[in-house]
């Protein structure tokens, strides 16, 4: 299975520390049960007149748990990390030495129960991520023809290839990307797991359906266009699996709180002991110095943030990305397919003397069959609409970011940017374009043949999304595009962008992003040519709804729906997650310090203090889970 393979690859990367953590994880619930059982046994021994035996049982058990924590602490110290587990060990040992056996047992219960609570809280935070894995398609019904008869065979989705005819039964999950077979009955598809849209969408023969969508009440046939590994839902699963494996800097920052916090706790405890002359005060202070928020709350907040973003159709590849999203200061947009709808329509053809419109369109469309550019489909569609036959090419080559050249029926045809055409046809000139228009130039046998003019509309919510990004802290908005300056400027003006850099090659975009000083820089793009600059930015967001695989692989964030406002959602979720993580840490630290000061005056017995600290931990964990919802849900940029 593809999904199982992804999970296995992730597990194969676990190091010795992860193996230790899994071992501890398996022990959590038995240790909780053992702690309760020891407490009950000690209570019975005390009630039956054997208090010394009961106290000895608690002491041995508590020191044993302290030994386990000591092993964990040493492992962390070898990695150069000082955590608050040192305080847990000192608290257990000190309470046993001063005879506060009830407090020692409560601290042990707090540690073991706290880890069990962490397990529950993390499971809650990961619910949306796990739901993706649990509902991944596993089988497909392949249709094979034998004469006039058809045979249906159930196969693993890993065995499905492009071109296979598949049967999709009512209420089944689409196993791989494909198109509905011609002549099939219309059917409604639930695409909420892919797009977040709750209403079903009707698809007919010839329509694209993506893996992960759920078929309605009609049985339909579809033709696979991708294998399982490259289909939409499996790509989502891979991204989610990768995202869950990345820690966040702010989570590591929690460990940085540990050293000063440990010092403060020990200082308060020692001062209380010295001034009172009572070693019990030291134990009472240390009991309140074991805040789980430093260990648990921040990771939970970030896992909750990734879960929330996945539910919104935005895959964030790790907590580190959320942390950078929270601090974005510059946002850079590609134009075509990002700020614009990416579905340009040809409005007119301007011919040069000696060439007819249909001839120019026929040759251009025939050459564009060998191009991956977004404009190619529009030119081909218009040629077919006019009933023009597409001609085979003797040879063809696409020049990245420039155009395509082909030999068609003995004619050397070039289609692309003005500079690309002028290399062989220097008489080519740019026409006057209206706002939102763009030009595709054509030459035949080194003669300028004409211009195909198309229009690509600005996304309806682009301007609102930019305003929202500025409201969330973006001080600078930039457009980088390979289009001519006139075309780029017209779109930029409509979007409210003043910093426009046109005529950029992929290398120019990378250089431009690298030279930006107001950082972190967020880059938003959708095409294969955007992959280098997405990787070069501090945070790269790929509009991956149309299957821009290279861009999605290079990006830190992948938007699964064709909605620019999701960039605002990604930034807002990052800011909420960081704010809530740090808030949870500070709640734990401040409350613990205040309680330690009170305990230093002998006002909080050790056993009571242990119970209070458990309540503080619970408050911080519940606060961290607020990252599942954040402050305002979806952004208002629509």
Number of helices: 23
**Strand proportion:** 15-25%
Distance linking N and C termini: 38 Å
Report the C-alpha radius of gyration, rounded.
31 Å
The beta-strand count equals 22
Q: Sheet bearing the most strands, described?
A: 7 strands, mixed
Going by helix content, strand content and strand pairing, the class is: alpha+beta
Percent in helix: 40-55%
How many domains make up the coordinates? Answer: 4
Report strand order across the widest sheet.
10-22-21-20-11-18-19
Low-confidence stretches: 1-25, 632-638
Q: Tell me, rounded to a whole number, the average pLDDT.
A: 80
Shape descriptor: elongated
Task: Describe the secondary-structure layout.
Blueprint: H1 2-12, H2 16-47, H3 51-78, H4 85-97, H5 101-125, H6 127-134, E1 139-146, E2 149-156, E3 165-168, E4 178-180, E5 187-190, H7 192-195, E6 201-203, E7 208-209, E8 214-215, E9 220-224, H8 232-244, H9 249-276, H10 279-287, H11 297-311, E10 314-316, H12 319-325, E11 330-333, H13 335-339, E12 345-351, H14 357-368, H15 374-385, E13 395-399, E14 403-408, E15 411-416, H16 418-422, E16 437-444, E17 447-455, H17 462-471, E18 476-480, H18 485-495, E19 499-501, H19 506-514, E20 521-525, H20 531-536, E21 539-543, H21 549-554, E22 557-559, H22 566-599, H23 606-624
Parallel strand pairs: 11-18, 11-20, 18-19, 20-21, 21-22
Antiparallel strand pairs: 1-2, 1-3, 3-9, 4-7, 4-9, 5-6, 5-8, 10-22, 12-17, 13-14, 14-15, 15-16, 16-17
Helix pairs in contact: 1-8, 2-3, 2-5, 3-4, 3-5, 4-5, 4-10, 5-11, 5-23, 9-10, 9-22, 10-22, 10-23, 11-22, 11-23, 12-22, 14-15, 22-23
């Amino acid at each position: 299975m593809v999904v199982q393979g992804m999970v296995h690859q992730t597990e194969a990367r676990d190091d010795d520390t992860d193996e230790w953590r899994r071992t501890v994880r398996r022990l959590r619930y038995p240790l909780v049960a053992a702690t309760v059982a020891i407490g009950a046994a000690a209570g019975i021994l005390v009630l039956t007149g054997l208090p010394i035996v009961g106290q000895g049982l608690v002491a041995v058990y508590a020191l044993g748990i302290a030994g386990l924590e000591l092993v964990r602490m040493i492992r962390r110290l070898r990695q150069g990390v000082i955590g608050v587990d040192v305080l847990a060990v000192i608290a257990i040992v000190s309470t046993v030495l001063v005879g506060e056996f009830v407090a020692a047992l409560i601290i042990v219960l707090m540690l073991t129960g706290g880890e069990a609570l962490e397990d529950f809280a993390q499971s809650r935070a990961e619910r949306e991520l796990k739901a993706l894995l649990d509902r991944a398609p596993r089988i497909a019904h392949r249709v094979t023809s034998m004469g006039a008869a058809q045979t249906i065979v159930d196969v693993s989705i890993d065995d499905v290839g492009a071109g296979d005819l598949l049967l999709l039964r009512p209420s089944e999950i689409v196993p791989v990307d494909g198109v509905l077979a011609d002549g099939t009955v219309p059917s409604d598809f639930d695409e909420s797991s892919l797009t977040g849209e709750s209403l079903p969408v009707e698809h007919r023969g010839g329509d694209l359906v993506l893996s992960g969508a759920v078929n309605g009440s009609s049985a339909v046939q579809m033709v696979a266009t991708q294998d399982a590994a490259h289909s939409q839902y499996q790509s989502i699963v891979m991204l989610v699996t990768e995202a869950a494996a990345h820690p966040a800097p702010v989570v590591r920052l929690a460990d940085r709180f540990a050293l000063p916090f440990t010092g403060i706790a020990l200082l308060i405890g020692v001062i209380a002991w010295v001034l009172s002359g009572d070693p019990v005060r030291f134990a009472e202070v240390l009991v309140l110095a074991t805040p789980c928020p430093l260990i648990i709350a921040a990771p939970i907040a970030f896992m909750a943030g990734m879960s929330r973003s996945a539910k919104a159709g935005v895959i964030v590849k790790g907590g580190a990305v959320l942390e950078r999203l929270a601090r974005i200061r510059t946002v850079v947009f590609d134009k075509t397919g990002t700020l614009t709808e990416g579905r340009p329509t040809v409005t007119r053809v301007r011919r040069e003397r000696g060439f007819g419109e249909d001839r120019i369109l026929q040759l251009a469309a025939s050459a564009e069959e060998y191009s991956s550019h977004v404009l190619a489909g529009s030119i081909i569609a218009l040629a077919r609409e006019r009933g023009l036959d597409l001609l085979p090419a003797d040879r063809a080559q696409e020049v990245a970011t420039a155009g395509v050249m082909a030999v068609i029926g003995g004619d050397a045809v070039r289609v692309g940017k003005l500079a690309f055409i002028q290399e062989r046809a220097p008489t080519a000139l740019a026409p006057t374009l209206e706002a939102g228009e763009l030009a595709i130039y054509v030459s035949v046998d080194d003669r300028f043949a004409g211009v195909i003019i198309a229009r690509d509309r600005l996304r309806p919510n682009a301007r609102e999304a930019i305003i929202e990004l500025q409201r969330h802290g973006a001080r600078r908005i930039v457009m980088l595009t390979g289009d001519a300056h006139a075309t780029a400027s017209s779109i930029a003006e409509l979007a409210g962008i003043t910093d426009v850099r046109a005529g950029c090659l992929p290398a120019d975009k990378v250089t431009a992003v690298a030279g930006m000083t107001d950082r972190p820089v967020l880059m938003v793009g959708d095409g294969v040519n955007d992959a280098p600059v997405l990787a070069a930015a501090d945070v790269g967001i790929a509009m991956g709804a149309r299957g821009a695989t290279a861009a999605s692989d290079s990006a830190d964030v992948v938007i699964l729906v064709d909605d620019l406002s999701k960039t605002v959602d990604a930034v807002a979720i990052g800011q909420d997650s960081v704010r809530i993580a740090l808030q949870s840490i500070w709640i734990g630290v401040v409350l613990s310090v205040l309680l330690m000061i009170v305990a230093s005056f002998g006002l909080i017995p050790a056993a009571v203090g242990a119970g209070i600290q458990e309540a503080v931990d619970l408050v911080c964990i519940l606060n961290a889970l607020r990252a599942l919802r954040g402050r305002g849900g979806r952004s208002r940029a629509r």
